[in-house]
Input
Amino acid sequence: MAIIALHSAASGLQALSTQLDVISNNLANANNNGFKSSRVNFEDLIYQYQQVPGTKDELGDTRPTGIAVGLGTRVAGTQLDMAQGAPITTGRQLDVCIEGDGMFQMKVLPSQGNGLAYTRTGSFFINDQGNLVLDSQNGYMLDPQIKVPANTTDLSITTDGRVMATVAGTNTQQQVGQIQLAHFTNPQGLLQIGGNMYQQTDASGPPTLVDPGQPGAGTLLQGAIEASNVDPVTQLVDLIKTQRTFELNSQSIQAADQMLQTVANLRH
Output
């Protein structure tokens, strides 16, 4: 009866509410450099069969179809879109954009997983100890650690990750560190912990650290930063579709309620 329609439509409202939350988060981070958008994947629920396909009818013939009523939908998961964001030229020496696959490995609080996290945001600073740290509230340090000499007058980062410093009083560059990139078998399985940071899980698999330009890793572009990969136009279209579908599910509930009221009034 219409009671199934009530439950199916209610499951649709709940799933669409989750989709609205994800879209809203994507739009809120449209200008967040290095941010990766997410999308919601749905799946239908179990079916209630009144007649199963392939059974015999009264004449002994095989039924080509059955009678099945679905019981609604649910969110199967949220999927990270790891597509490359557009590079934004800044001209700043410590802004680094990854062109291709890979993530920077950062040291985070020991209480956060195994103390390591990963990011595509490449806006770095030099702290009071001379170490390269991320431009974030906590100033997470790059791992492997790179220490820049205090009397450095010029700093360059090559496409393969070598950090070259020119020290005062000299005209030659010396290598002070090597930036490596982490590669995951399943980056969609990473755990989002905020601050544009991700941590490994059993789903993502362990990271493989390689130099930029090696198999499985992109190259580095100094003086640029990766923009968010959120497409506002696509997100707005999805937002309108979600809103309209939510309204249709609400109308299904109203229609089912009216039918149930009609049935209830038959006894009068």
